Amino acid sequence: MENIVDKIKNCIEKNKDEYIGFLSGYLQQDSTNPALGVNDNPLACHMWLQKKLESYQIFDKIDLWESGSDFSNVVAVTEGEGEPLMFAGHSDTVPVTETQKQEWRKDAGPWSGAVKDNKIYGRGASDMKAGDAAPLMAMHVLHELGIKPKRPLYFTYVMSEENGGREFGVDSIIERGYKAKECIVMEPSNNLAIVPAIQGEFYFTITVQGLSYHIASRHHTLYPHGYDVKNIPGKNAIELAIEIIQELQKLEKELGMYVTHPLTESGSTTINFSGIESKGIFSAGAEECEIRGSMLYNPSITQDEAFKLFRDAISRVTERNFWLREHPPIVKIPYLLSTKPPVNVDINHPLCEQLAESARAFGKESVFESCLSTSDANYLQDHGIATITMGPGANEYGVHSISEYVPVDVYLDAIGRYAYFLSKM
To answer: Could you tell me if 19 and 412 are in contact, meaning their C-beta atoms sit under 8 angstroms apart?
Structure first.
């Protein structure tokens, strides 16, 4: 008697042109994130997705709605009993820059969905339209086999992930009523590695107040004999900012050396400085300085702990500097994007075990990893949803770069694993 794995494999082989064609058509929809680049019709991709999914007559509901002026979301629903399971993806992509267009493979352009050398090309192929498509095509497989998962399923797709727009994406999905206790995010995970841990992240600004002085008086600021702290000749805000940066670099090294996680690469807690800007005229010491940057931190550290470690480092500089005691730096968190709490799900969580079983069923090793880059998984975790990432594709396949692709075999393997996984739901 043919077992479930053989049935799934045979069905995929029979319908692989349909499954490849679905992803190819999806890639032909320009879904450039409208906050990051030009997109004359940002709703078109999700309208295509809605129409295509409705044509399969597999799902009980396809819900499409606009969120904000430029964004939209799509949810495909299958009804059932018990706790819902969510799948979370994003249709939006980063722009294809003019330089990338010149370097891109000529016979498989950014919006071609072309299949060449057993690879499917297009912006978003790995990040993350192959991941988006795989569980949907897995549902097609199960429909062909006459199998319907018992649990309610939400397949959710947003158009505002690449710009960190949780308000119009993940938050809008939850507010619409599509919330679950468990979720699988189909971001590329080094060809279907199981990822229960993701770094935390926040962006910050630190504003440091100095006291302007004439450049001819700088020596008095270095050796202010006869002055007290409330009546000094000047303080250079840039130099004060450097002291803070140096203290944060010490913290970065300490955390990188001593804070560990079983799945995370050593030294992955980092503090990046992306900009420094001062105020003042050319012939005077800087009267104000703003530092901009971000902190990525190990999943074993909670968000509150990360905030405290970061602020404590700044406080140490403030306490030992007479000027800063009177004029403490102003720290703003978050800056630009919402904070992203880390994802740190137990490796023995049932979702991890079930996904590992799916890998073994297809003769694959179940690989567990962490992810150093953040995604909507962090925001879903912030909603109290246990979130595991697993998807086809990998950064090495041109993610955010030129000639992005996903191998056909990896994509079809993902469909098979998801189909097996969903057959057990």
So the answer is: yes
Q: Are 221 and 233 in contact (CB under 8 A)?
A: yes
Q: Are 182 and 83 in contact (CB under 8 A)?
A: yes
Verify cis geometry, omega within 30 degrees of 0, for the bond prior to 334. yes
User: CATH 3.30.70.360: which residues of the chain?
Assistant: 200-332
DSSP string, 363-416: T----EEEESS--HHHHHHHTT-EEEE--S--GGGTTTSSS-EEEHHHHHHHHH
Token pair recorded at residue 216? 């001819």
Distance CA 292, CA 269 (A): 17
- DSSP letters for 220-252: HHHS-TT--GGG-S-B-HHHHHHHHHHHHHHHH
Contact 178, 86 (CB under 8 A): yes
CATH H superfamily, domain 4-198+343-423 = Zn peptidases (3.40.630.10)
For the chain, residues classed under CATH 3.40.630.10 are: 4-198+343-423
Q: Distance (Å, rounded) from C-alpha 399 to C-alpha 118?
A: 18
Within 10 Å of residue 62's Cβ, how many Cβ atoms? 18
CB 194 within 8 A of CB 351: no
The token pair at 288 is 């104000």
Query: Domain 200-332 adopts which CATH fold?
Result: Alpha-Beta Plaits (3.30.70)
**Chain center to CA of 423:** 28
Instruction: Say if pTM beats, i.e. exceeds, 0.90.
Output: yes
Backbone angles phi, psi at 206, to 5 degrees: -125, 115
Quick one: 137 exposed, middle or buried, by C-beta within 10 A (0-12, 13-18, 19+)?
buried
What is the Cα–Cα distance from 424 to 135, expressed in whole angstroms? 14
Q: Which residues of 319-349 are buried (b: 16+ CB within 10 A; e: fewer)?
A: eebebbeebbbebeeebeebbbbbbbbeeee
3-state secondary structure of 315: helix
User: Which tokens in the block code for residue 106?
Assistant: 């000529």
Alpha carbon separation from 305 to 298, 339, 341 (Å, rounded): 11, 13, 11
pLDDT digits (tens, 9 = 90+) for 327-385: 999 999 999 889 999 999 999 999 999 999 999 999 998 999 999 899 999 999 999 99
Question: pLDDT digit string (tens) for 164-186?
Answer: 999 999 999 999 999 999 999 99
With residue 273 as reference, give the H or E element that holds it. Answer: strand 270-279
Query: How far is residue 170's CA from residue 91's CA, in Å, rounded to a whole number?
Result: 13
Cα–Cα distance for residue pair 186/392, rounded to 1 Å: 7
